[in-house]
C-alpha cells in the first residue's frame, strides 16, 4: 500500500515538475538577495559515542535524555520525558516554584518498545498540569529510593494574549554530528534568547545506521538534553522519524519517535501525534505531517485534512495574532534537493493557508536555508497548468530551515536562476529566531553557524497578516509580480 502510494505520489509530482520547469524558464531573476557567502564545506561527521555530549549521567538508574514539551493547548502544562536504563524506577515528577518551596508531585506513565534487535530503556512521560503562567518551576526526576535523582527547571510562558512578546528558536534536521553540536551551541549562546524551540523534523538520523541502530536515538536524546530539559521543543515529525523497514520486520511507521517524543495532540482534538496545535503567548502554532502513516498522498479524505479543516476556523487572531505552521517538507524551495516533494500537500492545503492568512510556514527536509516572499500558487491546478507562484500579500512567507547539520550534509545545488519568489537562499548550517514584539511586528533572523554569536545573516521585520497586512517583502523593487 505504502509502496503504491509512493509511486503514485512521484507520478503526480513528476507531471507537475515538467510544467514548472517550463514556466521557470521565463522567470526573470531581478532584485533578489542571493547570498554570496561561501564556506569551506566538508561533509559532517557524526560525533563518536564516546563524545562528551553523549555521556551517561552518573549514578544508579540516573534519568537521561530529559526533554520537555508543552502539555496542553495554552501553556499551563508541560510533558516531562526521560529514560532510565537499569530498571523502570519512578515515572513521577516532583516540582515546585522558585518562590514557593512547597513540592508537588505528578504521576506519569512508562513505555518501552523493541526495534529489530534493539530494546529500549524505560521511557517515562509525565504531564504536570495547572501550572502558573510566566513562572519558573524546578523539577526533579528519578525519585525512587536508592536511585539517582536529577533536577532541572523551566519557565512557563506568559498567558496567551495578543500583544505578549515571545521569542522562539527554530531548528530542523539536526542529527548528531560535530556541526549539529555547533548549531545547538549557537542557539544556546545567541543573545536573542529563545524561550521555546519550534523543531521542524528529522531529529536523530538513527536510521542512517545499520538496522536503524536505535541506540543513536538514545545518544541524540543525551546530546540535546542540555537544551530540551530546560525549554520546550515543539516537535514535528520528519521522514527520518519514519523508521519504516519491512526487510527487518519494522512496519509500524514512526515507532521510535512516537514512543520517545510525546506531544499534546489530544488537547487540540487531533487523533494522531503527527498533527496538532498549541497556543503559546501571542502565537498559534499548527504542526502538520508531511508523511502520513497510510499514504504519502495528501487528499481530502485523510484524518489530517479533516482535522485541519476544523482547526483553521478555531484560530482567534484577536487572541493569538501570529499564525505559524510547521511541517517537514517545504512547499516552496528552489533547491534541487527534494524539489517539489511537498507538491501533493501544497495542492490540497494552500488555499486554506491563504484564506486564513497564515503568517509564517517553517519547514526543514532540504538541508539549506531559504526564505520566500509572500506568494501563492492557488491558481495552479493540473487542469490549467498555471504553476508560477504569484505575489500574494495574504499568503505566508515560507522558510526552509533544514540546515541543522546532520550527517547527510548540505544541499548546495540550487536551481538557476533563483526564482523571484525566493528572497534569500544559502547552503550553510544555522538556526533561526523569531522575536514576536506585539500583534503587528515580529523580528525574524537566520543565524549562520560560521558567524559570531550575535550575527544575523538574514533578518526581516515581519508584519502580521491579520493586524497589519502591509508589504513586508525584502526584495529590492517590492513590486507585485
Ligand atoms: C543487532 O544485530 C546486529 C547484526 O547482527 C549486531 O551487530 C548488533 O550488535 C545487534 N544489536 C543488539 C543490540 O543485539
Ligand atoms: C559540543 O559543544 C559543547 C558546547 O560548545 C562543547 O562543550 C563540547 O565539547 C562539544 N562536543 C563535541 C563532541 O563537539
Ligand atoms: C510593535 O512593535 C514594533 C517593533 O518593536 C514597534 O515599532 C511598534 O511601535 C509596536 N506597536 C505598538 C502598538 O506598540
Ligand atoms: Fe527530511
Which short descriptors sum up this protein?
single chain; 481 residues; alpha+beta; Purple Acid Phosphatase, chain A, domain 2; 7-stranded mixed β-sheet; 6-stranded mixed β-sheet; 6 helices; 25 strands; binds 2-acetamido-2-deoxy-beta-D-glucopyranose; binds fe (ii) ion
Strands, helices and their partners?
Elements lengths: L1 H23 L39 E7 L7 E7 L7 E6 L6 E4 L1 E3 L2 E2 L2 E2 L2 E7 L7 E6 L8 E6 L10 E6 L6 H12 L6 E4 L15 H14 L4 E3 L19 H6 L15 E5 L2 E5 L15 H9 L10 E5 L16 H13 L4 E4 L5 E4 L2 E2 L13 E2 L5 E5 L20 E5 L3 E7 L4 E8 L9 E6 L18
One 2-acetamido-2-deoxy-beta-D-glucopyranose (NAG) binds next to loops.
Explain what the structure shows.
The structure is a single chain. The protein has a domain at 162-201 and 274-480: Purple Acid Phosphatase, chain A, domain 2. Mean pLDDT is 90; it is low at 1-31. By secondary structure, the chain is of the alpha+beta class. The strands form 6 sheets. Strands 14-15-16-17-21-18-22 form a 7-stranded mixed sheet, with no helix packed on it. It is built from 6 helices and 25 strands. The chain is globular and about 65 Å long. Bound molecules: 2-acetamido-2-deoxy-beta-D-glucopyranose (NAG) (3 copies) and fe (ii) ion (FE2). One 2-acetamido-2-deoxy-beta-D-glucopyranose (NAG) binds next to loops. Residues 395-452 form the Purple acid phosphatase C-terminal domain. Its cofactor is Mn(2+); Zn(2+); Fe cation; Cu(2+). Residues 1-20 form the signal peptide. Its EC number is 3.1.3.2. It comes from Mikania micrantha (bitter vine).
Amino acid at each position: 500500500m505504502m509502496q503504491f502510494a509512493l509511486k503514485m505520489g512521484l507520478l503526480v509530482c513528476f507531471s507537475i515538475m515538467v510544467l514548472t520547469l517550463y514556466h521557470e524558464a521565463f522567470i526573470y531573476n531581478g532584485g533578489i538577495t542571493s547570498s554570496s557567502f561561501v564556506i569551506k564545506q566538508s561533509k559532517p561527521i557524526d560525533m563518536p559515542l564516546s563524545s562528551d555530549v553523549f555521556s551517561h549521567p552518573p549514578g544508579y538508574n540516573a534519568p537521561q535524555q530529559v526533554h520537555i514539551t508543552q502539555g496542553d493547548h495554552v501553556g499551563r502544562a508541560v510533558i516531562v520525558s526521560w529514560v532510565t536504563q537499569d530498571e523502570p524506577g519512578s515515572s513521577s515528577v516532583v516540582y515546585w516554584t522558585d518562590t514557593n518551596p512547597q513540592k508537588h508531585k505528578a504521576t506519569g506513565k512508562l513505555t518501552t518498545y523493541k526495534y529489530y534487535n534493539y530494546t529500549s530503556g524505560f521511557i517515562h512521560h509525565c504531564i504536570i498540569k495547572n501550572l502558573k503562567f510566566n513562572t519558573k518551576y524546578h523539577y526533579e526526576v528519578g525519585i525512587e529510593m536508592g536511585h539517582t535523582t536529577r533536577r532541572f527547571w523551566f519557565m512557563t510562558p506568559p498567558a496567551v494574549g495578543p500583544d505578549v512578546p515571545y521569542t522562539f528558536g527554530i531548528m530542523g534536521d539536526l542529527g548528531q554530528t560535530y556541526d549539529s553540536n555547533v548549531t545547538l551551541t549557537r542557539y544556546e549562546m545567541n543573545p536573542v534568547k529563545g524561550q521555546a524551540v519550534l523543531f521542524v523534523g528529522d531529529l536523530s538520523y538513527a536510521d542512517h545506521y545499520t538496522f536503524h541502530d536505535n541506540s543513536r536515538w538514545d545518544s541524540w536524546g543525551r546530546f540535546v538534553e542540555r537544551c530540551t530539559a530546560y525549554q520546550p521543543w515543539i516537535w514535528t515529525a520528519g521522514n527520518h522519524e519514519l523508521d519504516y523497514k519491512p526487510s527487518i520486520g519494522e512496519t509500524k511507521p514512526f515507532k521510535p519517535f512516537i514512543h520517545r517524543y510525546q506531544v499534546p495532540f489530544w488537547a487540540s482534538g487531533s487523533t494522531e501525534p503527527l498533527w496538532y496545535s498549541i497556543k503559546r503567548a501571542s502565537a498559534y502554532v499548527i504542526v502538520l505531517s508531511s508523511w502520513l502513516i497510510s499514504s504519502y498522498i495528501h487528499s481530502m479524505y485523510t484524518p489530517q485534512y479533516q482535522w485541519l479543516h476544523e482547526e483553521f476556523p478555531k484560530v482567534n487572531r484577536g487572541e493569538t495574532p501570529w499564525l505559524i505552521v510547521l511541517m517537514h517538507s517545504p512547499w516552496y524551495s528552489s533547491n534541487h534537493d527534494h524539489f517539489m516533494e511537498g507538491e501533493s500537500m501544497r495542492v490540497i492545503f494552500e488555499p486554506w493557508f491563504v484564506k486564513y492568512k497564515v503568517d509564517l510556514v517553517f519547514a526543514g527536509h532540504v538541508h539549506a536555508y531559504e526564505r520566500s516572499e509572500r506568494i501563492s500558487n492557488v491558481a495552479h491546478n493540473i487542469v490549467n497548468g498555471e504553476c508560477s507562484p504569484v505575489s500574494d500579500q495574504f499568503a505566508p512567507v515560507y522558510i526552509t530551515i533544514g540546515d541543522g547539520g546532520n550527517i547527510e550534509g548540505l544541499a548546495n545545488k540550487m536551481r538557476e536562476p533563483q526564482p523571484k519568489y525566493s528572497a534569500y537562499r544559502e547552503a550553510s548550517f544555522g538556526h533561526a529566531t523569531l522575536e514576536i514584539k506585539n500583534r503587528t511586528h515580529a523580528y525574524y533572523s537566520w543565524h549562520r553557524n560560521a558567524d559570531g554569536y550575535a550575527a544575523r545573516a538574514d533578518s526581516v521585520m515581519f508584519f502580521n497578516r491579520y493586524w497589519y497586512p502591509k508589504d513586508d517583502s525584502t526584495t529590492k523593487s517590492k513590486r507585485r509580480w
